[in-house]
């Protein structure tokens, strides 16, 4: 069962924060120790993917193709042909944009058991400028048939999604944040693909979020509560396939989806809520 | 079956395939067929019963637009029913214009966009090395296809990892879609480029089954190095009016042309 931390446990703004890449490498080492088929494939990204521990533990199983993303994804597809389970770890901006056709043809269309791990996505490389921002990756990947797109929100969910991906045959894209986030999920969280999770109950409005923004959505919900607005927060770790039922249910059950029961408040936060059935936070 | 006779029959089948489907890439098909017939007839350690055997040799057709010749070759060697060839390019057929590994037994990679097969082959050769396996990897690329940069990324990795059970075969027919490779974006000196990228380079007559067999069955050509076979071929070979003519990149033979081509191969429609 999935349990989220209670409201009292949350106080998210004050909690310690974690770089999800640490959970990523810890989990990859753990998975590789249990399954010899797992290999890492990188584009000179050992440091930026924090894979030093993996390299130390499995030096032969970390394949560095150099700065060559098309080759990297093609090589991963070939490794899968040979029975390996490649975890491709590269900055999301380069992995997705540079190797898009290999992702489409060699991985998704070919139904290869490749796990694509987009590191430091969104605006994580903010100061490096737009060349290094990866704000398109989710939109691109979700348009491709036959690939599951997962955007974990904290270290627990990152690890859980990786365990699921390693145990599941088929193409998966996992977005791994470098922007520090507090722990949102309890330690025994189990990732369920395609399932939304209500991380905060609420009746007035619904906020649907994922990734590094989820904890901020929870903070926003706390602030709304102070204004007397009960905000439901739904975590949507799987962008594809999307849990449409959860969106429809929230649209029917929370007030923002139907005519207001009372006149709109003049309060600043309430006034921001738009007419559509629910507001979706921006990724990254 | 003798390789030369297999190649002749596959050519006959392929000419009919393209004629009746009304589409295809007959020029590139005919330049590659002797390479495929040699591989499937005498080199590759794979049979219709071992298409899922982890230890099988892999052949990856990178120039996926000559899918017709892959299908006719696979049919000739029993990987798929010959009757299925009649569905080529038809709606709901498994035999698409570019090979789909999910639909056709024996197809190792879904190719079509150029520059994909060589990186996949490098990945497979790496998996074999990790497994300490003697299984081999062969990939056929077009010469025009080598204009794609991904090939050179993969070639760097292949020599860096000393993948000496990987063989790249170039179908060096010197023609691409509408013109010669030289006119378009010249590859020369291809042998020196491949050697500089760390490959053992060997040149063969790509229509001579004996030469092909000698080289393709003596891998590694040089221990510690991947092999780069430049197979000199002619688009449309050996049909007199098709050979070395860019028009036949994807022209479809009409009934008269089909008959003339079949006559040249000693066959009837």
TrEMBL record, chain A:
Keywords: Thiamine pyrophosphate
Annotated stretches, region: Disordered: 252-284
Keyword Iron: no
Compositional bias annotation for Low complexity: 267-277
GO molecular function: magnesium ion binding
CDD domains referenced in this protein's UniProt entry, alphabetically: TPP_PYR_DXS_TK_like
Gene3D superfamilies from the UniProt entry: 3.40.50.920, 3.40.50.970
Cited Pfam families: Transket_pyr (PF02779), Transketolase_C (PF02780)
Cofactor(s), by name: thiamine diphosphate
Signal sequence annotation: none
Transketolase-like pyrimidine-binding domain: residues covered: 18-183
UniProt cross-references to InterPro entries, sorted A to Z: PDH/Transketolase (IPR051157), THDP-binding (IPR029061), Transketo_C/PFOR_II (IPR009014), Transketolase-like_Pyr-bd (IPR005475), Transketolase_C (IPR033248)
Family statement drawn from the similarity comment of this UniProt entry: Belongs to the transketolase family.
Name of this protein: Transketolase-like pyrimidine-binding domain-containing protein
From TrEMBL, chain B:
Domain Transketolase N-terminal residue range list: 5-265
GO molecular function, one term: magnesium ion binding
Family matches, as Pfam families: Transketolase_N
InterPro entries found in the cross-reference section: THDP-binding (IPR029061), Transketolase_N (IPR005474)
Name recorded for this polypeptide: Transketolase
Organism this protein belongs to: Phytohabitans rumicis
